[in-house]
Amino acid sequence: MLVCLAAHQRTTSLEDLERLSVLGDAAASELTGAHDAIRGAVVLATCNRFEAYFDVDDHRDPSPLPAMDAAMERIADLSELGFRRVRDTVDFAHGNGVAQHLFAVTAGLDSVAVGEDEIAGQVKRALESARRAGVTTAPLEHLFQRATETSRAVKNSTRLGESGRSLVRLAVELAGSRVGAWEDARVLLVGTGRYAAASLAALRTVGAQDIRVHSRSGRSRFAQREHLVPVSAADYAAEAALADVVVTCTTTTDAFALTTEGHRAARGRRTTGQLIIDLGMPRNVDPGLRSLPGIDVLDLDTIRVHAPIDEFATIDEARLIVATAAHRHAMARRVHEVSPAVVAMRGYVHDVMDAEIARARARGGDAETEAALRHFSGALLHGLIARGHGLAAAGTGPDWADAVRTVFPAASGADAPAPEAASPAAGPSAQDAE
């Protein structure tokens, strides 16, 4: 059974999301070991959400709740949040609700900036991280692969794919009225990761030209590749004080990129306006900076409040694509669940057929007889398997699988009678005995 625990920006405070986000995608390994019934896990941790997707063995216990309680206890320990806090914060989905949710998330329909670009890549990287850790399963692989395909379908078929939306672009747009002419602004970008690249693209789109970059880890390749002015650790405080706009988007968690006392000392008596855009998760900027004269801080909470309402028709069209994809995924999963019974039934029929063909050859049977036997077994199997797939798609596949295990001994694990026992060559039949 697929299960999802999700904490997102609509229901979770920024402080709690910060603690959860620190766990990162690597938490999948920890969560897989939280309970014996958890066969695999994928964790999606972004600036707006923390979600854990599980493949839970429901054969021994049809309820996933014990496994999920154990997973939430592990999340509480790792994030240093209380168990009750975690339990009251996360949303719970299981069965096909998991596909519906992940497909909507990957398509950007559950984001602050509806239709955002970054989320699809983050979903893909979450799967890759779990795959490297060896904690994915076939159901989770199929789920996440279908999510990526659905995201492409939404972007190719609706207007959501036209605008190049992202949380970064939304932040830059909201900052426009406070900056004035971006062409004249002195901008300091703090961070050199994937989010920094998206931030840089958004800044250049609005016309920013004087962009400097500081890497807290000391990396310079990003500055060289993007032809930016690198800012060393020694010059960082002074540059941060001089910038008209500071954009922070680093994942470093050991300390704030900008502290209140440090920035106050660097700015001295300067009171000219400065905009700080904090896109970090956990936050990169000390909230106390708002108390400094001339400082305006635009953080994730502020961005969420001012997120625009998109056109309902476009969103409805995208949600229909998501719902259709989730329904197809559910049908495919149901068909996949009867596969073991199909394989066992096919194997049993083929064994009987091969025995009969061998017997026919021993009696001098010709190729026409052999072809007729193969055609008959193929037609028989085709009808039975088609019926099984149809029942599985309708939700009654387990009943069909039970019937197969009852009728075909090999499918139930029982010892199948030797094909010879049913052959006239092996002795008189029940009809002959009469």
Write up this protein.
There is one protein chain. This protein has 434 residues and is of the alpha/beta class. The chain folds into three domains: 2-164, 2-Layer Sandwich (Beta Polymerase, domain 2), CATH 3.30.460; 167-304, Rossmann fold, CATH 3.40.50.720; 332-433, no CATH class. Helices cover 54% and strands 12% of the residues. The protein has helices at residues 14-21, 27-32, 65-79, 83-89, 96-106, 118-132, 138-157, 167-179, 194-205, 221-226, 233-242, 260-267, 300-305, 312-337, 339-362, 367-393, 397-407, 409-412, 430-433; strands at 2-8, 38-45, 49-56, 91-94, 186-190, 210-214, 229-230, 245-248, 274-278, 295-298. It has a six-stranded parallel β-sheet with strand order 7-6-5-8-9-10, with helices on both faces. A four-stranded antiparallel β-sheet has the order 2-3-1-4. Helix 5 (96-106) packs across helix 7 (138-157), helix 11 (233-242) crosses helix 12 (260-267) and helix 16 packs antiparallel against helix 17 (397-407). The two termini are 52 Å apart.
Distance separating the two termini: 52 Å
- In total, the number of strands is 10
Instruction: Give the C-level CATH assignment of the largest domain.
Output: Alpha Beta
Question: Order of helices and strands, N to C?
Answer: EHHEEHHEHHHHEHEHEHEHEEHHHHHHH
How many individual helices?
19
